[in-house]
Amino acid sequence: MTTSILRHASASAGILTAFAVVGTALLAATYLVTRPIIAETEKQAKLALIGQILPATLYDNDLLKDAALLPPARELGNRDPTTVYRAVKEGKPFAAVLEVIAPDGYSGKIRMIVAIRADGEVSGVRVVTHNETPGLGDYIEIAKNSWIRIFEGKSLSKFTAQEWKVKKDGGKFEHMAGATVTPRAVVKAVHKSLKYFAANQDNIFSLAANTQEQAK
Amino acid sequence: MSTDTISYKEIIWNGIWKNNAGIVTLLGLCPLLAVSATVVNGVSLGLATALVMACSNGAVSVVRSWVPNEIRIPVFILIIAVLVTIIQLVMNAYMQPLYLVLGIFVPLIVVNCNVLGRAEAFASKNPVAPSVVDGFMVGFGLTLTLGVLGAMREIFGKGTLFSGIDLALGEPAKGLVITVFPDYQGFLLAILPPGAFLGLGLLIAGKNWIDQRGERLGARG
């Protein structure tokens, strides 16, 4: 009796194991085939997004190769090292693209990229991911509204700290009725990233290129 | 259900109308309500589900005689999870923008109870061909519901139809977007989850009305 139960149980276990092995093998094969394609698509998507805020004609280096890792910084809203893309024109620093998180959106973190030119002016800002309310707070997405372009050409020298706020808080930045929390978070994060850039500009451009991005 | 009583016509009719997963059995509502804000999102996830169901039903049917009864559920789940992950990787590679839009709902197809339900109720007892048809048709019925619900919500919520089709078919398809109401201000309720519940309620009511009307006419005639 006991042996028959044992035999039955081990047969079941063997069958389950066989299915698990075949399934894992199938997944591994699919992963190996799709991995380079996914990496390439992601790279293109990233370049396309950066290209919107930093036209590729303005610099002459390979952005993705000239990326470096920045240590975590409170101004950037992150706890992990983030990638910075450095644009160089004829050997001179031209602009940097920072990955910035606005931690205080209406529904959680708003992830953005901010391109800042060497003269301290914002070249452009784009929201990468967010969970803001559809129809209310999602106008920060370029696909929904051109509001995010409000930052282009702005800098620390053009606006004072008081002016780097949404209109409702006495600043200079327009926002839409019904959703103040979202633009407030975005304005604050862009302002902080400008301050970070001003304080760390030399460091950002002298960091050794770290192409971990490709190794990942 | 034995082999000789299987009628493809019945399988198709059950999947699309009589036991429609979206509006009759009301299974797998989580993705139904979450992604049906536009036609393109709804239909894309519906088709991905239908594809998974056709493949999982087929695979389950092939292995059904080798799987001991007591471990059938883990084996079915394993098969479904493998298929969904493969589809997820392929979507990520070739339709990344759409993949990003559908997000977490693609891996969640694994726990869509329609998929395991059909594997258990149909594919584990029937030959391969009808199982594949059954899986696809139940998924297709879900796709139709998602498409109609998506169209309702998109027209009332955004005033457009097929917005975001370029995410699925590439940039050239952008011309296919139809603006139903130009300069429409949008109707937020339809886009938010409550709009999905209201729309689904209307669809169920509509289906019941059509069925009952058919019965009345049948009784009279």
Describe what you observe in this structure.
With 216 residues, chain A is α+β, with helices and mostly antiparallel strands. Chain A folds into two domains: 1-53; 55-215, no CATH class. Helices cover 38% and strands 20% of the residues of chain A. Chain A has three helices and five strands. In chain A, strands 1-2-3-4-5 form a five-stranded antiparallel β-sheet. Chain A is elongated, with a radius of gyration of 24 Å. The model of chain A has no long low-confidence stretch (mean pLDDT 87). Chain B is mostly helical. Chain B has one domain (7-220). In chain B, 69% of the residues lie in helices and 2% in strands. Chain B has ten helices and two strands; from the N terminus they run H-H-H-H-H-H-H-E-H-E-H-H. Chain B has helices at 8-18, 29-35, 39-63, 72-94, 96-102, 113-123, 128-158, 165-169, 188-191, 193-220, and strands spanning 160-161, 178-179. Chain B has a two-stranded antiparallel sheet with strand order 1-2. Chain B is globular. The relative contact order of chain B is 0.18. The model of chain B has no long low-confidence stretch (mean pLDDT 85). The interface between A and B is medium-sized, with 22 and 27 residues.
Proportion in helices of chain A:
25-40%
Strand content of chain A: 15-25%
- How many E strands of chain B? 2
Overall structural class of chain A, as computed from helix and strand content, comes to alpha+beta
Radius of gyration of chain A: 24 Å
Helix count from the secondary structure assignment of chain B: 10
Q: Give the biggest beta sheet of chain B.
A: 2 strands, antiparallel
The N- and C-terminal alpha carbons of chain B lie at a distance of 32 Å
What pattern of helices and strands is seen along the backbone of chain A? HEEEEEHH
Please, what is the oligomeric state? heterodimer
Bin the strand percentage of chain B.
under 5%
Shape of chain A: elongated
Total number of distinct structural domains of chain A: 2
Q: List the helices and strands of chain B in order.
A: HHHHHHHEHEHH
What would the principal axes of the Cα set say about the shape of chain B? globular
Low-confidence stretches of chain B: none
